[in-house]
Amino acid sequence: MSGHTCAGGSGCPQEERVVSKNRTVYLKDYQPPQWLVDDVYLDFALQPSATEVISTIRYRRNPLAEQGDALLLDGHDMELLSIRLDGELLMPERYRVHAGGLEIPAVPERFTLEVTTRIDPQGNTSLDGLYRSGGNYCTQCEAQGFRKITYYPDRPDVMAPFTVRMTADAADNPVLLSNGNPVASGKLDDGRHWAEWQDPFAKPAYLFALVAGNLACVEDHFVTASGRTIALRIYTEAHHIDQCDHAMASLKRAMRWDEERFGLEYDLDLFMLVAVDDFNMGAMENKGLNIFNSQLVFASPEIATDDDYISIEAVIGHEYFHNWTGNRVTCRDWFQLSLKEGLTVFRDQCFTSDLHSAAVKRIEDVRLLRALQFAEDASPMAHPIRPASYMEINNFYTVTVYEKGAEIVRLYQTLLGIDGFRRGMDLYFQRHDGQAVATEDFLAAMADANDADLSQMQRWYDQAGTPRLSVRMEYDSAAHRCTLHVSQSCPSTPEAEVKQPFLIPLALGLLRADGTPLALQLAGEAEGCGSSRTLLVTEAEQSFTFVNVPEAPVPSLLRDFSAPVILDYPYRAEDDAFLMAYDEDPFNRWAAAQRLAMRTMLAMLAGEAADVELIATAFSRLLADPDLDAALKAEALMLPSESEVADACAVADPGHIHEVREQLRVRIATLLQGELESTHAELAAASGLDDLAMQQRKLKNVCLSYLLTLKTGRVIELAYRCFLQAACMTDQYAALAGLASCDCAERKLALSAFEAQWQGEANVMGKWLAVQAGSSLPDTLEQVKQLLAHPAFDLRNPNKVRALIGTFALRNPALFHAIDGSGYRFVADQVLQLDRMNPQVAARMVRALMNWKRLEPVRSGLMRAQLQRLSDAGLSADVGEIVSKSL
Ligand code: B3K
Ligand code: ZN
C-alpha cells in the first residue's frame, strides 16, 4: 500500500494491493502517491485503554499518479468504529478492511474522509504508535507507527499540515502537547480538559507526535541570528527536573552551531523536548516536539559519565539538526533513509568535533564503524546505505545507513572542501525545501553547486560491502621517485556478486626516516605542495608517482580515515611503532597503534612468537609524550575489540580470542605497571566537566583497567578505593566495571553499595545491570539469569533489555559464545519472549545470532540450531526477516 509495492492503480489485481507484513518491498517499484492530503485534523479522546481518534482528512487526486478511483490507506492494530465520506456514513459494503489497511473502492476526485478508530495505548507494548510510559501518553511514529493511530497513506512523500486536538483527564494529564504551536485550550465539566495544536509546516505522518501526562518543565529561550526569540522547554517527570540543565545547554549550543556552520535557523516559535523512560531507540525528531529516551537527557556529574555527557549533547544536536535535514527536506520513501540519517549523523559528528577534540571524535567514530559496520557488511544483513529492498523497514535503521551513510556524506566534504560542501548544502535546501526527495537529489546538488562530476559517488549508495584498498610502494633510489600502486576490490554481498570501482579519496603523507614529513610533489607538477594531500582513486588499479623523494619513505596512508575502506599495506611492526611516534596525523598515530596491537594478537592466536616488548615500548613512549593529549593516549592504549579481532580471522574462535586479548593486556600491564600506576596517580585529582578533566579521567581509567588485569590484592584495593572515593559517575562506574570482572570480596561490596546508592535512579541501575552482564567471570550467565528477576529489570523496558540482555549478547563475546551453547540458548529464549511484546527490540537482540557461518564448527552448529529453533516458532516480521536471512 505504501506505493512501493503497488500504488493501487487500475492494473493491479485485488490481492496484490493488500499489504502483507511478510512481503519484500522493492525500491524499483516506487510509485508516486495516488492521493495527496490537503490537511489533517486529529481529535484524540485520551483514555489509557480505549482512546478514540477521529481523523478528518481532505484528500485530492495526485495529478502525477496513475488513474484509478480506489483509496488505499495503511492501518492495523485498531478497532474501526466508523467512516464518513463527505459527511455520509459508509456502510461496511462500501469498504474493505485488510490485515494491513483499508480500501474504499470508489471515491471522487476530492473529498473529506472522517474515520473514527479506537486504540489501546496501555496495552501497546511495542512502543510504536501511541503508548504509555510512566503513566503518561506518548507516541513514536517513525517509520510506520502512525498507521496504528488512524488509517492514512503512511509514507513520507505524503506531506500535510496537521491540527491536533486532544481531551484528557485534567488531574492525570495537566500537560497536553503536540507539534507546532498551541492555539486553544479549555476545561470541560467532567474533570477533563482539552488543547489544540497547529503545525503550519507540511510534514509526513512519521513526524507526528503527541504527549500527555503529568510532567514538569524547565524553560529557557534562544535568540536566533535574525533576532527571533524561541521558547525552549524540556518536559520530564518532576523528580528529574534538576537533571536537565546539560540538555538545555546542549540544545542552545546546537541551535547556535547550525546557524554558524550551515546558516540554518529554527523555524517555529517554540521548541519542546520530552524525556520518557520507555523508548525503542535514542530519540525522535518530531517537528517541534522531540521525544527522547530519558537516558539521553538526564545528567549530573553524580549520575552521568563523561561519555554520557558527550552523547547527550550529540543526540540533542542530532535531533535538532533533523529539523532541516529530515523535516524541512524529507525522504521520498524509506529506501532514502540515509539521505536524512547519514547526513544528520555527519552533522552531529561535525558539531561534536567543533566543540571538543576533533581527533578523538574521529577515532571514536571510526572505532565504532570498524567494530560494528564492517561486521554488518560481512553479515547476512549486509546492505548498501540505500538498500534496494526490505521486509521490515525498522530493521534498516542500521550502522550502515547511519554511520557508513555519514562517511559517504563526509566524502563530499573531503572531495569539495568545507566551502564546496556548504555550497552544495545551500543549493540542496534552495531546491528542495518542503519536498520529499531521494539521495540522487543530494548528489546532484553537491555536483551542480560545485560544477563537479560526482557521478561515480552513486556506487556508494548502490553497492554494499567494505572495499579493500591495497597499496604497494616502489622506491627508485636513483631517480628519487616513489610510486604507490593502488588497487581496490570489494567482496560480494547479497545484492551483488561483482562490484564496480568506488570513488575513494586517499589522504596521505610520506615520512622520512627521522620522522619529518616530505613535501609531496606528483610527477608532472612544478613543485611540491604540503606534506599531506588527497589522491583520487577511481579505478580498480592505479599508480601515483611522487618525485623529489630523497630516501625511501614510510607512507602514512588513509589519513583521518579519508574513506570507509579496509587498508592493506605491508607495514612492518617497526613501521607502526615509528608512525605511532611521528605521524603528524593524530588519527594515523592511533591507527598505527591499533594495527600493531592487532598484528600482535593475530600472531598470538596463530601460536607464533609475538613481540610484546615492541608494543609496550611504543605505549610507554606515547604515555611520556608531552605533546599528546590524555584522551589520544587513552584511545591509543585501548586494544581493538574482540569482535574486531574476530572479523580479522577467517574462522573465529571467540574463546581463544578473548584469552589472547586478555593475555596481551596482562603482559602490557606487567611491563608498564610502574608507568600505569604513576599516570593513574598523577591524574587522580582530575575534576570538573571541562574537556581537559574529561580527557584526564579517560586516560586514568584506561590505566586502571590495565592494572586490574593483574588482579593482585594491591590493584584491587586501588580500584575499590577509587570506587569509594569517586566524586563522579565516570570514576565510580569505571572502578565498578573493572571490579565486576575480578572474583574478589570488593566486587560484591562495590556492587551492593552501588545498588543501595542508586536504586531510585532507573538509568543508573541500567549501568549496574550492564557491568554484571559484561563481566568476564565464568558464572556471568547464571548471574544474568538471576538478574532477570531483580526489581531493577523489566523486560518491557528497552533500556533495561539493552543493559542486561544486550550487553551479554552483543558485548560479552567470551561468555555469549560459551562452548556449550548456553549463551546462544539463553539469547534465543529471551528473543522469543520479547518478540511477543516488542518486535523492534527483539530484532536488535537476535542479531547476536546472525553470524554463525563465521564461527568455528562447534559453535557454528550450536548457533545455527538456535536460529532454526526461532525460525520454527511464530515470529514477528522484524525478527523473522533477520532469522530467515541468516539461515
Ligand atoms: N529518526 C529516529 C529513528 C527512528 C527509528 C524508527 N525505528 C531517530 C534518529 O535517527 O534521529
Ligand atoms: Zn536521525
From TrEMBL:
Keywords: Aminopeptidase, Hydrolase, Metal-binding, Metalloprotease, Protease, Zinc. It comes from the Bacteria. Pfam families: DUF3458, DUF3458_C, Peptidase_M1, Peptidase_M1_N. GO terms for molecular function: alanyl aminopeptidase activity; metallopeptidase activity; zinc ion binding. The keyword Magnesium does not apply. It catalyses: Release of an N-terminal amino acid, Xaa-|-Yaa- from a peptide, amide or arylamide. Xaa is preferably Ala, but may be most amino acids including Pro (slow action). When a terminal hydrophobic residue is followed by a prolyl residue, the two may be released as an intact Xaa-Pro dipeptide. The keyword Nuclease does not apply. Residues 112-207 form the Aminopeptidase N-like N-terminal domain. InterPro entries: Aminopeptidase_N-like_N, Aminopeptidase_N-like_N_sf, PepN_Ig-like_sf, Peptidase_M1, Peptidase_M1_dom, Peptidase_M1_pepN, Peptidase_M1_pepN_C, Peptidase_M1_pepN_C_sf. Its cofactor is Zn(2+). Its EC number is 3.4.11.2. Residues 247-460 form the Peptidase M1 membrane alanine aminopeptidase domain. Residues 465-569 form the Peptidase M1 alanyl aminopeptidase Ig-like fold domain. Residues 574-887 form the Peptidase M1 alanyl aminopeptidase C-terminal domain. One of its GO terms (biological process) is proteolysis. Belongs to the peptidase M1 family. NCBIfam families: pepN_proteo. Aminopeptidase N is involved in the degradation of intracellular peptides generated by protein breakdown during normal growth as well as in response to nutrient starvation. PANTHER family: PUROMYCIN-SENSITIVE AMINOPEPTIDASE (PTHR46322). This is Aminopeptidase N. It comes from Mariprofundus erugo. The lineage of its organism: Bacteria, Pseudomonadati, Pseudomonadota, Candidatius Mariprofundia, Mariprofundales. The gene is pepN.
